[in-house]
Write a structure and sequence with these properties.
Elements (H helix, E strand, L loop, with lengths): L7 H21 L19 H22 L1 H24 L14 H8 L3 H12 L5 E2 L7 E2 L2 H8 L2 H17 L2 H8 L9 H6 L9 H6 L10 H13 L22 E6 L5 H9 L3 E7 L4 H7 L8 E5 L13 E5 L7 H11 L8 E7 L9 H18 L6 H11 L3 E7 L6 E8 L4
Parallel strand pairs: 3-4, 3-6, 4-5, 6-7
Antiparallel strand pairs: 1-2, 7-9, 8-9
Helix pairs in contact: 1-2, 3-5, 3-7, 7-11, 14-16
The site of S-adenosylmethionine has 17 residues, from helix 11.
Organism: Glonium stellatum
InterPro entries: COMT-like (IPR016461), COMT_C (IPR001077), SAM-dependent_MTases_sf (IPR029063), WH-like_DNA-bd_sf (IPR036388), WH_DNA-bd_sf (IPR036390)
Pfam families: Methyltransf_2 (PF00891)
């Protein structure tokens, strides 16, 4: 958290000491140092001491940047630059400039313009701004020879990042502009369609529709109906590959091996990336992934042959009663945060008729920490997701007490056994056990 006692000298010392921890770890382990070059490592090692130093370094660097800009200019310059920072990424993505620049060597503005159809005069200005944030660079300043940086190469190398950018900058960012208007119109609504994103995107999104219903009806030339749902599925897959939202954190928050031979129903499991990850490490577990039928082809394409016999896909809406009775675990990863309490309660109560005594509901979702108690960039990630939930879904990220209250209200027979936050993860695993009827 920003404190009145933070100052340039202390922050500089903090930056220096944490940089030393990271660089000496890399040197000792003969690992490459991160740079802006395309061949830079994608991320720093997972070793806890490196990650702790990285968190402290990001926090100190953020604060020192703020102090160096100065109070007078800080908000003023944020208001000027932030919207362009995101609009240039959006345009680079919509015109797929990522793929128009070679991963090795350089190209010219004229060649990128010819490949993408983006007018050269606009392209030059858009890329100049992007370059001020480390996205693309010129081989020599003013040379007009464009090359990737490590960051700009990511959507080119990992295409699902384009879906994450598209969902965030075409849909969520459009809604962000309408946030204050939505708050005036719908102050205390719990309805998923009475949100800023619906005001912004209109286009058939009625107030009684959810983002998912609206996205399911989306049409675009050359694509089958529901392209936004499929893109959203890829966006979730991309989050599952990265840092604090990386899918691997799923193993640390619950002892999956303690289940023995067991069936896990992955409710709202999207294309199935969580079930696939669990299936790879836990051969005694079987999975049923439930989500919209539109996602089944992507699911089938994603499941590796090694685990195919233990994972199936079942089209199912969680607003109807759970069709798989007596499973051992009903898993809800990043589902309940999409819904206001009114609808989260309906989702939970729809599972109840299927529950056998001792069955578990395991939730993997953000648990918002008290302000200032998590590393700054983890807290920013969670507050960003919280606002994303507000403007797209009228829902929220919940604090530990909110989760306990939600389950108690859904049914007193739900018992929250534990909330575990795996180190480095933005999401916690909440273990809930269905108690025997008394
Ligand atoms: C935020 S995503 C989470 C996906 C996945 N569990 C994960 O963590 O990556 C929410 C998921 O809920 C699904 N969903 C939305 N409404 C649904 C409904 N009524 N029934 C089943 N799934 C639904 C969406 O298609 C999407 O895959």
């Amino acid at each position: 958290m920003f404190s009145p006692n933070d100052n340039l000298a202390d922050l500089a010392a903090e930056i220096s000491s944490n940089t030393a921890i990271i660089t000496s770890y890399l040197e000792k382990n003969k690992l490459p140092q991160p740079t802006f070059a395309v061949n830079s490592p994608r991320s720093l090692p997972e070793a806890p001491e490196v990650q702790a130093a990285r968190m402290a370094l990001i926090e100190a660097a953020t604060k020192i940047h703020h102090l160096a800009v100065g109070a007078d200019e800080y908000i003023w310059s944020q208001a000027l630059t932030l919207k362009h920072d995101q609009s240039v990424i959006d345009t680079l993505n919509q015109y797929n400039v990522w793929d128009a620049v070679p991963l090795e060597g350089t190209t010219t503005y004229a060649a990128i313009s010819a490949k993408t159809g983006l007018a050269e005069h606009a392209l030059i200005r858009i890329m100049r701004h992007a370059m001020t944030t480390g996205i693309f660079t010129e081989a020599a300043p003013g040379s007009g020879q464009i090359m990737h940086t490590a960051a700009s190469s990511m959507p080119a190398r990992f295409a699902i990042q384009k879906a994450w950018i598209g969902h965030n900058l075409e849909e969520v960012a459009a809604g962000a502009i309408y946030q204050s208007k939505a708050l005036r119109m719908y102050a205390n609504s719990q309805e998923p369609g009475e949100v800023a994103m619906a005001l912004a995107l209109k286009d058939g999104w009625a107030a009684d529709k959810t983002f998912f219903e609206w996205a399911g009806e989306s049409e675009r030339e050359g694509e089958a109906k529901g392209w936004r749902v499929r893109r959203f599925g890829q966006a979730m897959e991309s989050a599952a590959n990265l840092g604090a939202t990386k899918i691997e954190h799923i193993h640390a928050g619950f002892n999956w091996d303690s289940l023995g031979e067991a069936t896990v129903v992955d409710i709202g499991g999207s294309v199935g990336h969580a079930s696939i990850e669990l299936a790879k490490k836990h051969p005694h577990l079987r999975f049923i992934v439930q989500d919209f039928a539109e996602l089944e082809p992507q699911h089938n394409a994603l499941v590796p042959s090694t685990v195919r016999s233990r994972i199936s896909f079942q089209p199912h809406s969680f607003f109807t009663p759970q069709p798989v009775a007596n499973a051992d675990v009903y898993f809800l990863k990043h589902i309940l945060h999409d819904w206001s309490d009114k609808y989260a309660l309906k989702i939970l109560r729809n599972i109840i008729p299927a529950l056998k005594p001792g069955a578990r509901v395991i939730v993997m979702d953000g648990v918002l920490p008290p302000p200032g108690t998590a590393p700054l960039n983890v807290e920013r990630l969670l507050t960003s997701v919280d606002l994303q939930m507000m403007l797209g879904f009228n829902s929220k990220e919940r604090m530990a007490g909110d989760w306990i209250k939600l389950f108690k209200e859904a049914d007193p027979r739900f018992e929250v056994k534990g909330i575990v936050q795996p180190p480095g993860s933005a999401a916690a695993l909440i273990e809930v056990v269905w108690k025997r009827d008394t």
